[in-house]
Each structure stands twice: as C-alpha cells, then as structure tokens.
Amino acid sequence: MRDYLTFLLRVWRVSFQGSWKFYAWMTGLSVLSLIGLNAWARQFVEGLQTTGMTNQVSWGAYIANFTFLVGVAAAAVLLVIPAYIYKKEFMHEVVLFGELMAIAVIVMCLLFVTVDLGHPDRFHHMIPPIGIFNFPGSILSWDVIVLNGYLLLNLHIAGYLLYCRYHQRKPTKTFYIPFVFLSIAWAVSIHTVTAFLYVGLAGRSYWHHPLVPSRFLASAFVAGPALMILTFQIIRRVTRYYIGDQPIFTLRMIMTVAMIINMFLLGCELFTEFYSPTEHAAAAHYLYFGLHGHRGLVPWIWTAIALDFIGLTLLITPLSRRIVWLNLACVACFIGIWTEKGMGLIIPGFVPSPLGQVVEYLPTLNETLVCLGIWAFGTLLYSWMLHVAIPIMNGSLRARPQLSPTEPETAPARF
Amino acid sequence: MLPADPTSKESHARKAVSARGRSGRWLATGIALVLAVATWRGLHAQGGRDATAGPRSEVKLPAVPRPATARPEVGLPGDAYLDRTPPRQTKGLDLVRAGWTYNCMECHKLFPARWHYDRPMTEHQDVKLDHGNNRFCLNCHHPANRNAFVDYDGSQIAEADVVLLCAKCHGPIYRDWQAGVHGRSNGFWKAGEGPKTKLRCIQCHDPHSPKFRPLPPLAPLRYPPRAANPPVAGEGAAVGQH
Amino acid sequence: MSHEPRNEVSPKTIEQVYRPVTRRTFLKGAAASMVGVAGLMAALKPLLALEQGEATLDDLLQKHYRELTPQEMQRILQRLEDKCQRAYGVRPAIRDARPLEGVEFGYALNLTRCIGCRRCAHACLKENNQSRDDANDIEMSYIRVLEMNKGAINLETSNVYYDPEQVPQKDKYYMPVQCHQCRQSPCTQVCPVQATWQEPDGLVVVDYNWCIGCRYCMAACPYEARRFNYKRPTIVKDAINPNQAYLSNRIRPKGVVEKCTFCLQRTRAGKYPACLEVCPTGARVFGNLLDPASEISYILKNKRVYLLKEEVGTLPRFYYFFDQ
Fold this sequence. Notes:
The complex is a heterotrimer. Helix content of chain A is 67%, strand content 0%. By secondary structure, chain A is mostly helical. Chain A has a domain at 15-256 and 365-393: Formate dehydrogenase/DMSO reductase fold (Up-down Bundle), CATH 1.20.1630. Among the domains of chain B are: 12-53; 91-203, no CATH class. In chain B, a hairpin with a 5-residue loop joins strand 1 and strand 2. Residues 1-21, 36-59, 69-76 and 234-242 of chain B have low confidence and may be disordered. Chain C is an alpha+beta fold. Chain C has a domain at 105-322: Alpha-Beta Plaits, CATH 3.30.70.20. In chain C, strands 10-2-12-11 form a 4-stranded mixed β-sheet, covered by helices on one side. A two-stranded parallel ribbon of chain C has the order 1-8. In chain C, strands 3-4 form a two-stranded antiparallel sheet. In chain C, strand 5 (196-198) and strand 6 form a beta hairpin. The chains are: A mainly alpha, B mainly alpha, C alpha+beta. At the B-C interface, helix 1 and strand 3 of B face helix 4, strand 2, helix 5, strand 5 and helix 8 of C.
C-alpha cells in the first residue's frame, strides 16, 4: 500500500518534469480545456439554448463527436488483436499506447454525453439504487455500461502493466490476460451498442438500417489507426521511446482493408437510398443534394467523401509506403470520417423531421468551444498519460532506482 | 375490417405485434444478448411478460400506494381563455341580441307564401341559397308558420328543433351528431362529472349556404430562430413544399 | 527482435522524482497550483449567475414520481408552487392528478373536417403553460398542423409554415399531429432513467423533476411529439394557467423534455382536452376506449380509421378518420 502511494507520488511528480516545450504544450491544452469549461458553464446556466440544437434537430455536435470517438476508442482493439492473438512481438511495444488512448478517448466520450444533458446535475438518476436504471430496455443504459466497462478494463490493464513495469517484475498472466481478451470483445461491443442507439429507432428511417453497425466498425477501424499512426510518430519523435515502423505499417494494412470495406458499404447505402427513391431517402437526399432549398450539409459530405477517396487512393497505392504520404492519408481519412460520421450520420437522422419539416443545424460558437475544450482535455489527458507511462516503460521511472548515473536499461518495454 | 369494439381491436393489434414487431425486437435483443450473458435474467423478465400486462417501462418501479387525491381538489380549470364561441355568428342572432323577437310572422302574415319565388325581391336580399337542390324558401320554412320549419308530412318543426329539419336529408350526419362525433362537444366527456354541451347544426353552418366558412388561420409555426440557415423572408411558406 | 532506442534514456530529469521535494520546487508548485485554481475559478465564473434556489438540495434528492409517498408529494407540490410564485409572480394550484379507474383515453381526428385553422395548436399553449417568446410563438405547442397536398398522405411534402388569408385552401387538406400516446411507445422504452412512462390510462407522461435531458426520447419519437426546454420557460404572468398538475402543465424547469398528455389536468377531471374544446369544426373526438358507449368507441366501430406511421409498430391511441 505504502509502496503504491509512493508510486502515485512519483507519478504525480514526474507529471511536472519536462522541457519548456512540454510545459507550453500542456499549458496550451489546459487553457483550451478551461475555455471549453467556461463555455460549458455558460451553457449550464443558460440552458442548451446556447447550442444550435432545436426541437427538430435535437442532437448535434456533441453526440456526433461522441459517436465518432467511441469508434476511435474501440480501435484500440486493433493493437490488442495482433499483439495477443497473433502474437506479433512488435505490437507489444505500442499496445499500451493504444490502451491509454482508449482511456483518454472514452473519457472524452463520457464528457460529450455529459455536456449534451439538459440536467447533468441529475446524472445520479442513472445510478441504482439512488436512481432508476432502465436496463435492459434502453440502449442508452447499455451504452453507459459498455463505455464505463471498457474504461475500467483499460484502466485495469494499462495500470496493472505499468505498475508491474515500475516494479521491474513480470506481470502475472491471470491478472490481465483474461481482461485483455474480454476487452477485445468489449471494444467491438462499445461501438456496436452505440450504433444500436440509432439503429433501434424505427421512427428514424435514415438510421433504421442494418448496415449502420458494420459501417460504424469499418469507419472506426480507419479513423482509430489513422490517429494512432500519427501519434506513434509524434511519440517516437518527441519522447525517449522508440517505436519501429512495423506497428505503423501493420496499422496501415488494417486501415486499408477497413477503408475499402467502409467505402463499399457506403456504396451499398447510396445505391439503396437512391435507386428506388422512397420517402425514406429524403434524409440522404438532404445530405447529398439538399432538400427543398436547404443544402447546409452538402459541402460537408462531399468534402468528407473527397477526403475519404484521397485517403483510400493513397492507402491502396504503394505511395503510402512512404511515411509522408501515409501521414497525409491518415489525416485525410481521420477528418473525412469525422465529418461523415458526425455531421453526416447524426444530423440527417433529424432532417427532415419525422413530420417532414426541414430545419437545419450548425453548431454555435459556444457549442464549438465546448467541443474544442473536450478535444483539448482528451489530448491533455493522453499527453499526460504518455508523459508518465514512457519513463516507466523505458525503465527510467521505477521502484528501486539506480541513482548513480549508470548505463540505463535499454531493453524495450515488452509485455 | 374493424372489429366491433375497441377493446377487441386493441387485442387484435397486440397479437399482430407480438407476431411481428416483437419478434423483430427480439432479434435485436438477441444479438445484444451475446454481449452480456449475465443480463439474461433481466431480459427474460422483461420480454417474457405478457404483452397485455401493461406498458413496457413499468419494469421494476415499486409503486407506493398513494390515495387518489393526495390533495383536496382545487376546482376544475377555469378555462375562459379557451375560445369556444360557435363558428357561426348570424345577423339574425345579432338581432336577437339587440331585442328583436324574431317573430317572422310580423311581416309574413302580410305576404302569403309564394312557391315560385326562389329569389326574394325586397327583403332577404342577402340570402344566397346555395344548399344542394333546395331552390325554394319553403323547402325548409313552413308555408303557414314562418317561425317554424316544415317536416315531411307538412307538419311543423319548431325552431328549437332545427336539427330535426336537417336530419330529414342528412341522416348519417345526424346519427354522428347524436353520437357526439359530428360537431364540437364541450364540457365533460365523463358523464356525471358535469354537463356536456353540443352545438346545433346552424351554429356552425349557414343553412342557406351550409358549406363551412373558411377561417383565417392563427399564426403559423416559425422556422426556429436558433436553427441554421433560416429561409429568406417570405419564403417561409415555400419551405417544405416541392 | 530488439530495438536500440534512438534517444538515449537519460535518467537525470527523472532522478529528481526520487529525491525529497526541495523548497524551491514546492514554492514553484504552489504558485502553479494557484494559477491553475484561479484559471478554474475564472472558467466556472458563469455559474455565479445561477439563480437562487434553481438547484436546491431538495431537487437533487427528490425521488422518482412513482416512489413518492403522499407526504413527500404534498411537500413537493408546495415547493413547486412557491417556486412558481417566486419566478413568475403567480401562485398556481398544482395537483397530483391520478388516473381514473377503468379509463383508457383515445383520441380521433377527422381529416375530412379539419380546416387547418391552428386553433388547437394555440389553445394548447394557453392551457399547458409552454414557453413562448410572444403570444404567437407556437414552437413549443404540442400540436403541429401539417398542410398536405390532396392526393397523397406524404408527410415529406407537407408544410407547417402555411399562412394564407383563409383556410382551407382548395387543393390542400390538413393534418394536426400530436402525441399518439402509443401502446408500444418507443420514447418510454429508450429513456435511460424511466423519467417517462405510460400511465394506466394510457397517457405517456414525463416526471420533469426526474428527466436528465438526454433527448433520446425525442430521437425515438416517430411523431415529433416531444419538445425540449432549451431555456428556462418564458411566459408572461397573465398568460399562466394556474390550474396545474404535476405530470402535465406545471411550468417546466429548463433542460427537460415535455409532451402532450391529452391535458391530463382536465381529462382526468372529466373534461375535454383544450384542443378539442376550441376546434371550430368539431374534427376532434375524445373519450374512453374502454367504454363501448363513448364517442371514441363509436368512431372505431363506425368509421374507417387510419393510423399514422402504422408500419413503425407503435400502436397509437390516436386515430385519424375520414367522413363522406
């Protein structure tokens, strides 16, 4: 116990050790987070009228970001599967970063849901026995369970492995391997359940579509690796932890396959919607071409599709074997899918409204600031976790330090 | 198509759903089941309930018995702000308000009934007869007593029973009206709680031209001010139309 | 395979972690914390604008409607009346109107008769104390009147903004839509906290003091019957209907969902709902589905009834029918 407290204290202290660049980065992110918090406080006082949401479009940027990020969190599984199921040694050097990313992203998801609530002060109504938890009737309650469960799983796995590493001892398999395998299934479940949130609503024909969960996963398995590839390069550039090219190119392969599937499913969706133009195609019509003179989302979706295609082209050609082009592909895919899944999936579900009214939605400044703040906070959280985890992983932060400046251990972290 | 009474209709509908909607929902739940076997019992408890047992969401709320009125009644809503004036305000009724006795015979005793006049030359110029095949005043007004209406057999229908006059031709509507589903009812739907009032035919329809008069609509819904891309002024009516 | 780290690990910076905290570091840390706390306070400053009594401990600890004892209910109603008086200057009489025995409400609307005059949508506002910016702002009204093109029942080509001199227009017909009080109600199914549920008389109600404002029910409703209080309701003192019920027309807090309850403050006392009372054409028929002699039963027996979006499987208690 005492040992653990020392660990926490050291983690706490190492959090504040760093170069001026580190301080500048963290301060910048903190300031952005506080700006977001400020915007949210304003929203809390004035109500959700500070957002662009209306009775017709009752979910907006918050839920869009939430949906996208659940996918990113689920994509951590793409590091776990090669590492633990296919026993790829080189994946073990990055798998922890994926898990940490999942933690940060799930926290962002929970924040996005919380800021979307009209009464966040009544959050406890969901927690039995004080509250009433409508389980299993409400898919939202399923989502609460799977998201928090995934958060706990990753906290446990990452925390346990790091703590073992800190003590320079081999982790006990029974303490984490079952959880690793559970987390694989769980990762798929978080995104599937999130898709069921929408798919289950028979009144919204745009969402009530069996393809949605599969497309959710496919696009998540593009956006997640894209972000990972980018962050891994940042990690190996700015920290004292080496990540080889192999994990990056494994992720590239996964991404390529997922992107092909994603675009194929998109094609299926478009064919179904437009070949027989039923009343149910109105939302797709609004999204791609505009409806009754309203074309607010048209530029968004075509940008997204263009970016998706640029990403796909780069990925399937040998061009992306070069890291610069791969990075470009990642950026294109990430932004493309963020747009397509955020604005392109959530908003058209409400346009036209069930009674045929076309009311458009764009986030307001305040809403954007809240979103920005949460993104900044998530980045802050991930940066902090990396900042603490990397010294532990490369052996410079440990239980029994060698204080004399001797040759440090150079073996790469391997779990 | 429709079964004889609403309760049996409902049970039919419920059976239909248990056959179709419920099985669909079960499929969805079934897929989800794989994700958390531990919740099997909870699911079973929910899905296994008889469909007639009540709304689904009443799963596990312990209902605390509470007497029907936890507080004394404070009286029924005084709802004078609801505009319940009958749609038709006739000039005649205005005259009645002004003290006119509405005794038609004051004039008509001087003018005997003349069948061939379908268009009065002096009085009642404003009456434009546009009521199906009724071309003559005396199709409805009694030839001898202009304060009353005429029945099939030439007998009189008192002015207060004007509904019976209309019923001569409009049988199905009269039946609906009797049942309370044609024309507005006001007051209490529940017998014994208070009075229910019904309007008579001529309180909505002008008998000389019975088609319901168009009304100016009240203010329309507005495009939500906080929503993006509000339509340009004047375009509002075009929105939502092809 | 093994990697040679590109950056040599230099434990120098890390080493300080193992050493006791120096005075200098401590002061630096303290100063940084001050800045951090100040930043946090500055960020949260808007919270100062929260009105007194807007979020009280009582509100926070209040139980779900169906778990309240009579004494608790009594106290809550008292509190709500006080609150309304403070906020709006009117002391309402809020009752806990309970469902009647042997009653299941049904509503039918005659599409042949409706002329689209919107009297119902406006009466709804007057009766149910919805928020409005001015007397003609019917955004929060529970009724949307759709102008439809004759020759089809296509909601997608309907128009809610129509405003001609007179209605009905020649080639249009009109379809008011409000909560259908579904038997298989998707909204109650999706609510994560059961803040909305079906009462024994079939009315789908919301406990405004339990709703967390996630708006999932709004996404689930195929009839667009739910409204959300994006702000604290604005309503002028004179426009407030003081006869209120806990589950229906009491003035809502901000951040909760509300909906049509067939005016349960009226209908559970035996009266007709407000929208029916003002309908000039008598297109609306309301009554007890369980009573075979009721007006609504007459409709179901004798008229050809149409259910809006029957394919969604919601089994509404709201019927449309045609005459002639």
